[in-house]
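Risk register update: the risk of archive-format incompatibility is retired. Evidence:
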Amino acid sequence: MPSYSAAMSQDVKPPLAGKTVLITGAARRIGATIAQTLHDAGANLVLHYRSSVSEATELAASLDQRRRGSVATVQADLLNTAKLPALVKSATQAFGQLDMLINNASTFYPTAMGEITEHAWDDLLGSNLKAPLFLSQAAAPALRLAHGQILNIVDIHGMRPLRRYPVYSVAKAGLIMLTKALARELAPLIRVNAVAPGPVMWPDDANDELKHKIIDRTLLKRPGSSEDIARAVLYFASQAPYVTGQILAVDGGRSVGW
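Archived output:
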């Protein structure tokens, strides 16, 4: 006789079976972990990338090997807003519908006062705020048809600024407000929420002393992982039909024990 768990796996439908999810910046880091988690939950995926073609192709092949015909990739520069409707069209055509947009793509680097340039402003505000707005706008008609949702990856430093990262902090603060504004604008057919990571993946310039200092300021006294973020995304994707306009901090209590 088959085991109980095997029988359950045959009888229980995965929570995202039949759903299509577009994830921006999906080739690496948190985006790739989110992709793996939602795919395991049964979703069909459209993986967006800008320049990480080899990583995106490798990830898509790996996931598609587990479930044939379940993953597509699409390349786009999200700062070229004129191309975003075509990106959404490609994502929708890949599986015939679009149920969820995850605005994960981001740029992140320091902009010390006295050294801030217009290019840095345009780049950081562009990837972290402008692109999510215009991509959400382009995706809204398809998402309305599916009674779907938008999930933004923000940052706890959009609520409390990160030293030496004022432009990035402003951009994420804008994305937090955009999450709430879109929840109002797109209700009742589209839900809009956000996940705000804390100390999960370190910036390249973080030394051990800085890491220990940040970890010590969390209530749980340990760093998080990309899997922690992905589990929060899965919650919104599959278990939160009555939740919209909310920001969930996944930060080990960092924003409480500031």
